[in-house]
Design goal:
Elements: E1 9-10, H1 25-29, E2 41-59, E3 65-84, E4 89-94, H2 106-118, E5 124-130, H3 141-156, H4 163-170, H5 177-182, E6 185-190, E7 194-197, E8 211-216, H6 223-234, H7 245-261, E9 269-270, H8 273-279, H9 281-294, E10 298-299, E11 306-310, H10 313-323, E12 330-334, E13 341-344
Parallel strand pairs: 2-9, 4-5
Antiparallel strand pairs: 1-7, 2-3, 2-13, 3-5, 3-6, 6-7, 8-11, 8-12, 10-11
Helix pairs in contact: 2-3, 8-9, 9-10
C-alpha cells in the first residue's frame, strides 16, 4: 500500500506533528508486526529510486547538504533473503562480487544498529543480496538495501518497532534510506530525513501507464566527490533552511500541479548535471543521445544513471529499441511503483 498522502516523516527529532499519521505498507502486506509469528526466512524487495527533481543548497553545520528533491520508487530492485544462523555474527553474501560484504555494507550497518538500539542479543544472521541495482549510479542501491534490512529484521526478529522509529534509524545509515522505507512519489528535504508523500503518486492517477527509459552507463560516481565538484563549481554558501520556505512551497505546488496535469518532464531538474557532465565528458555525450531520442533527459542523483519519461509504456519501449543499436551502455524500461521496500515471509 502506498504511504498516506500529506503525511510528513521526520527522521530527525522534531516537535512538529505530521499532518496525517503515516500508515506503512508493511502493516498491510505482511500483517501486524507485533502479532505475527517470527518467520524462519524473510525476503525483502528493495526498489531503486530516481530523482525527478534535485536542488542542492549549502552545506550544513553537520557536514551534510540541504536538498529539496522529488524522489520516485521504480521497479528495478535488489532482493534480500534473511534468516537467523547458528553461526555467530553477521554473514552477508552477494551475487555481485564487487559489492563489499563487510562492515561497510549498509545491510551490515542496519543490523548492527538494530542490535545496539534494541538491546537484542547478537546471535547469528545470514543475508543473501541478489543485486540488480547498479552501484554508485544515483539509484540508491546501497540505501534501499539498508532500508530493506531495517524493515526485514524488524519482522524477522519480531522487534515491534513503530514506523517513525524505523525512519529515524534509516537516516542514521544513509541520506536516501528514509525515502527508501517510505517509497512512492515523495518530496524529500533537509539532508534527506524529511519525507512527504505527494497527494497523488506517479504510479497511479493521470500518469498510470507511463514508464521511464533508464540508461545505465558503466561509470561509477562517488557521491561525496560529486558534492565536492558541485561545491567547487559554484562556491556554495551555507544557507539556513528556514530561509527556503517559499521556494519549498513553490516546488511542492509545482509538482502537485504537474502530476495532476500529466506534464512532469517540464519539472525535471538536477543541480548535479552540469558539474558531473563537465567532469565526465563521456556522460555528457550519453545525456545528449538520450535527449535527442526522447526529447528530454535528466540525471538521477549524482549520476551516472539518467532517464526520460514517457506517458505510454509502449513509447518508452519503442524509444529504447531505437536507442540501443547506437548505445554502448545498458538501457532498460522501468515502471514507477508506490513502495520503497516490500516484505514477505
Amino acid at each position: 500500500m502506498a504511504p498516506a498522502a500529506g503525511a510528513t516523516f521526520r527522521a530527525s527529532i522534531s516537535t512538529e506533528t505530521p499532518s496525517r499519521q503515516f500508515r506503512s505498507w508493511y502493516h498491510i502486506r505482511a500483517g501486524a508486526m507485533r502479532g505475527a509469528p517470527t518467520p524462519v526466512i524473510v525476503t525483502v524487495t528493495c526498489n531503486a529510486k530516481l530523482n525527478l527533481f534535485l536542488k542542492v543548497y549549502g552545506k550544513r553545520p553537520d557536514g551534510f547538504h540541504d536538498i529539496i528533491s522529488i524522489m520516485q520508487s521504480i521497479g528495478l530492485a535488489d532482493t534480500l533473503v534473511m534468516e537467523d544462523s547458528d553461526n555467530e555474527g553477521i554473514h552477508i553474501e552477494c551475487t555481485n562480487p564487487n559489492v563489499p560484504v563487510d562492515e561497510s555494507n549498509l545491510v551490515w550497518k542496519a543490523a548492527k544498529l538494530l542490535l545496539k538500539e534494541t538491546g537484542r542479543r547478537a546471535g547469528g544472521l545470514r543475508v543473501r543480496i541478489e543485486k540488480n541495482i547498479p552501484m554508485m549510479g544515483g539509484l540508491a542501491g546501497g540505501s534501499t538495501d539498508g532500508a530493506g534490512a531495517l524493515v526485514g529484521l524488524n519482522r524477522l526478529w519480531k522487534l515491534g518497532l513503530e514506523d517513525e522509529q524505523i525512519i529515524r534509524l534509516a537516516a542514521r545509515i544513509g541520506s536516501d534510506a528514509p525515502f527508501c522505507v517510505v517509497g512512492g512519489t515523495s518530496l524529500v528535504r533537509g539532508r534527506g530525513d524529511v519525507v512527504e508523500p505527494l497527494p497523488e503518486g506517479i504510479a497511479h492517477g493521470s500518469l498510470a501507464g507511463g514508464a521511464f527509459m533508464l540508461v545505465l552507463p558503466p561509470v561509477q560516481i562517488e557521491t561525496k566527490r560529486a558534492y565536492d565538484i558541485l561545491d567547487e563549481s559554484r562556491h556554495t554558501q551555507v544557507r539556513k533552511w528556514e530561509a527556503l520556505t517559499s521556494e519549498y512551497t513553490e516546488i511542492l505546488d509545482g509538482w502537485v500541479r504537474a502530476i495532476a496535469d500529466g506534464a512532469i518532464p517540464a519539472m525535471f531538474h538536477n543541480d548535479f548535471a552540469d558539474p558531473v557532465f563537465d567532469s565526465n565528458p563521456g556522460l555528457g555525450a550519453v545525456y545528449n543521445n538520450l535527449r535527442n531520442t526522447a526529447g528530454h533527459a535528466v540525471l538521477s542523483g549524482s549520476g551516472s544513471s539518467m532517464f526520460a519519461w514517457f506517458d505510454r509504456a509502449a513509447d518508452a519501449i519503442e524509444a529504447r529499441d531505437r536507442y540501443m543499436p547506437v548505445a554502448g551502455e545498458m538501457v532498460i524500461v522501468v515502471y514507477p511503483v508506490d513502495e520503497g521496500v516490500s516484505i514477505e515471509g
